[in-house]
Amino acid sequence: MKRVITVTVINQSGVLNRVTGLLMKRQFNIESITVGHTEQPNISKMTLVVNIEDDVKLEQLIKQLSKQIDVLKVNDITDKSIVLRELALVKVVSPPNLRLEMNAIVEPFRPQIVDTSKNVVTYQVVGHPDKIDAFIELVRPYGIKELTRTGVTATVREVQQSFYESAPLSLLK
Amino acid sequence: MTANASTNAKIDASPSGMQEVEKRPKNGAEILIQALHDQGVDIVFGYPGGAVLHVYDAMYKNPIRHILTRHEQGAIHAAEGYARVSNKPGVVIATSGPGATNLVTGITDAMIDSIPLVIFTGQVATNVIGSDAFQEADIIGITTPITKHNYQVQDVNDIPRIVKEAFHIANTGRKGPVLIDLPKNISTAIFDETKANVPDEVYLPGYQPNYKPNYLQIQKAIQAISEAKKPVVLVGAGVLFADACDELVEFVEKYRLPVVTTLLGLGSIPGTHELNYGMAGMHGAVVANDAITKSDLIINIGSRFDDRLTGDTSRFAPEAKIIHIDIDPAEIGKNIRTDIPIVADAKEALKALLKNDFKAPDTAEWIDYLNKVREEYPFWYEADDKEVLPQQIIELIHKITNGDAIVTTDVGQHQMWAAQYYLQNHSHQWVTSGGLGTMGFGLPAAIGAQFAKPDKKVISILGDAGFQMTLQELALLKEFNLPVKVIIINNAALGMVRQWQELFYDGRYSQSLMPVQPDFVKLAESYGIKGYRIQTIDEAEKILTEAINSDEPVLVDCRVKQLENVYPMVPAGKALFEMVGVKKF
Ligand SMILES: Cc1ncc(C[n+]2csc(CCOP(=O)(O)OP(=O)(O)O)c2C)c(N)n1
Questions:
Q1: DSSP states of B148-172 as a string?
Q2: What pTM, to 2 d.p., does this model score?
Q3: Do A14 and B329 touch (CB under 8 A)?
């Protein structure tokens, strides 16, 4: 199962190494990891997306991370209402005769064109990682020259929607 | 390196010169030594080199007891031995590069066995870090996975704070090694007290070990214990680290609870206590493993359910509810499912259990059963009139020392025999490498133990192979007249490896026999130590008595039967109830 875990750390040199080293040593499979400063000076937040087999392993991951001296807080936010965002830069082959068509097709994803040359357009697309996956699939037939993704960052929504409250609204039930 | 050393070489080393030293500004190295004094450190094990010359110079001027071992590995194992018997952190200093990397085995050993150490390594100057400078090693990178925490000092004014934090981290919560890497230029930089930010109490927001048990969890534990028919208390080293042995004994006597221990939990309750059913696990007592297997309630206090203890985890204690008391929350549920987790210090948890008077479980029948199993399935060997058996040597050592000596071991068969046959009377008299199984541990650990307890008899029981990994430390026995008794169980083999090859590889002894050994008696003599040799069982008691009762360091080369095996045994991957080498008497 895929879990989104945030790790708040003291911004000490070596702390990123400690966290990633620990994940490697204990054989956790990291899908993405992002790090950056927070609103508090000297405190950084990492967002990890990890593939985990079961609850025992998940509990271990959280406990082992929490045990690190420079780690202040570890949260598994997967099951909360969260905003998950990722940014991708996608260079797509785009000969002038196809460019209008392409722009029309990608429109719903609201990408920004951040660079162009005669035959190549660079799109910047931001959103949930699923949206980025979909965007990539959409432009793939045109020929992707280069692709970079930042990895996921996330925040918990201010108002949490309870699972039980929202369930009856589901169209499937 | 010589140029740097000579710049500071003119300072008066006599105590009368110290006043003067006090007044002038201090450098990082001097502050470091001062910080060690402030922590009450009375002994340091180490080995100098270029990057720590200033530290050694500062030590010369402001003396702290430093023991120069013959190898950095010797220094760190000595510090571990010191920490185990004194229950205080051991301190180690080594130079950068090879000095630091020579510590790696000992650091890993301390990490896995939760031994509190504070380790100082020299480092090249900050302006050349990362340039592959002479004797540069990325010791922070190397030791990140094998330390509880590590620091590289970037600012001389941080030294007092970092040292204080390091001792705090090493010696609280689940104990462990903390490393401080000190670049050479930081050790020469001038310290400015006004910029040093040393808190009175260490406060680390990301490190708040929980000592007090949760009230509700204790109530649940009490209920489970009251209702149990076949309870077993499983004791690990956590009880020793927490100094909770008295509470443990009081608790199990009050409620008549049978006890088994791990290899590292030996000594937490006297070896001959009627409720102590001995060591469990791979080479544990039949009764201990049987108790776990038939139990309906395991009360684990301070053991981490290591695989050498549990055997096949899916069939460990199949009928039991599990209470797990551990200061490290990450150990709970890691290897074995837990019904009642209690994150707490062992002493606090036992005190909380003792504070409540609750209904004692009726364990009379269970204890009768266990007593019968204990009687019918003791550790056994078949004496042989031709060859000396290693078990006989350990039994004699036990008899001569009355079970009161501090015993250190190396790793292998002799270690298991020592665990089985040397029944200890007290806590903190057993020093062995458990989790890592580090050959070469035993002799230097004995040195550290003897420094910690100069008046105690220290017996170092070693294999002939493991002894040769750190035998250079014999020099210290002579130099400091440490009356350690080095007893070599000499089977001219890597006994434990040979045993596995006999049992699981059809006797193909691939690289496990050592037909050519030095003459250990002469070797001892060359170090100025009296050497003895035992070749027959008839002479064994007399020689061992003389050797052990001597006031001096001695070495005894015991020539024992090569093909003796450690039994009983849970083969790797099997359950505790699938022991082989079990004999009914
Ligand atoms: C540093 C190290 N290398 C290898 C091993 C693997 N090993 C475990 S026991 C053993 C044999 C030890 O032989 P010896 O010291 O003579 O003790 P014995 O088993 O014969 O009592 C070996 C090689 C180890 N534990 N540690």
A1: SEEEE--SGGGHHHHHHHHHHHHHS
A2: 0.94
A3: no
